[in-house]
Amino acid sequence: MNKKNYLLGIIYLIPFFGNAQIKIDSSKSFLDTARTVYLSNELNAKFQMKIYSDSLNNLKENAPLPKFLFNPCFDNQPIYWKNLHTPISLRSLVINEVHNKKVLLRMSKEKRLRNICKEKSSFIIPYSEKSYYILIQEKLQKK
After folding, report:
1. Please, which of 67, 93, 95, 139 could form a disulfide with 49 given CB 3.0 to 4.6 Å?
2. Within 13 Å and on the Cβ side, how many CA atoms surround 49?
3. What pLDDT does 16 receive?
């Protein structure tokens, strides 16, 4: 089959598959619904954070550091927590999966990574008192 017919077949089928709907239970909270729809739980958090750590592991030498690193409140995303009673440090999940020592050293020289989240939270998030810089230093000491 040539490419033109293949593309026409895909275009023809889009309306059939594009109308798929997600059934949302109105008795659930937004976060519970989001967890159901996006399968957001601890496994998904690790998967999502793996994407962030891979972006660091594959960072080119002259490329700018990703913007998520400059958000000291990166952990405050409860959609990735297993539930609201067990918050996790998303920053530590990312940093623990970074194996590129050159990138870690480069990040350790970035002064903007020394900021600590100043947002008040009713949750006790592990490592919330530590900056990215401290997490990176601890990672480098383990190596």
Report:
1. 93
2. 24
3. 55
Is pLDDT of 32 > 50?
yes
Residue 71's closest CA among 134, 128, 113, 104?
113
Angle at the Cα of 116 (from 105 to 65), degrees rounded to 5?
A: 40
**Residue corresponding to tokens 């913007």:** 67
**66 DSSP assignment:** P
With CA atoms as reference, report the closest residue to 42 among 94, 92, 83, 97. Answer: 83
Structure confidence at residue 86 as a pLDDT band (50, 70, 90): confident
Burial group, residue 65, by CB count within 10 angstroms (0-12, 13-18, 19+): middle
The pLDDT of 80-87, averaged and rounded, is 80
Give the closest residue to 33 by CA, choosing from 22, 44, 42: 22
- CB within 8 Å of 124: residues ≥ 6 apart: 87
